[in-house]
Predict the 3D structure of the following.
Amino acid sequence: AQTVTQSQPEMSVQEAETVTLSCTYDTSENNYYLFWYKQPPSRQMILVIRQEAYKQQNATENRFSVNFQKAAKSFSLKISDSQLGDTAMYFCAFMNNNQGGKLIFGQGTELSVKP
Amino acid sequence: DAGVIQSPRHEVTEMGQEVTLRCKPISGHNSLFWYRQTMMRGLELLIYFNNNVPIDDSGMPEDRFSAKMPNASFSTLKIQPSEPRDSAVYFCASSKDSKGEQYFGPGTRLTVT
């Protein structure tokens, strides 16, 4: 069975600084996808970034980038130039390409961006 | 595009009552997912449909829970009878296909007293 672990329940960062959120996963599969979702206080789940396991290049979306280490089964999210609107819960998620669309989520990291 | 629509946004009911949650996926999306979020268990998939057909319902907690998708633009999640431990936020999500990016609705916060 696949599992996703986020070892940092809470983190904080000063506005304009950079922060990295950790995620590790366990799987015996070789073909899968990884995601980071953001859940602000409004509770809306918003996709931040997606990574295909077969791609070596790390995904980037504006201020958000990932460090994907397939051998180590690590998938961290880096947020550059943090903004107050980045304050939210962040969830790492795994999808086995052979099991359709089932997303397996980590426990989440609550990020606070301080002015 | 209106996004995924869920109703109601909040539901408060008494133990033993029937609860029906509704979802309208994004037009053109062929896959629909129901998730539940609780403090204890986090976010977990309950069931998902592909082209209106249930594909994986292994996450449905027990027989009190049932889900239907009578057409491509509507799905329901029903709990009968409801229990206090069913209190949670229930999310519906849709994607173009089962492996595509999932877009979540705003969720329904259910409280069973």
About this structure: Chain B has no helices and eleven strands. Chain B touches chain A at residues 31, 33, 35, 42-45, 48, 50, 55-56, 89, 91, 93, 95, 97-104, 106-107, 109 (CB under 8 Å).
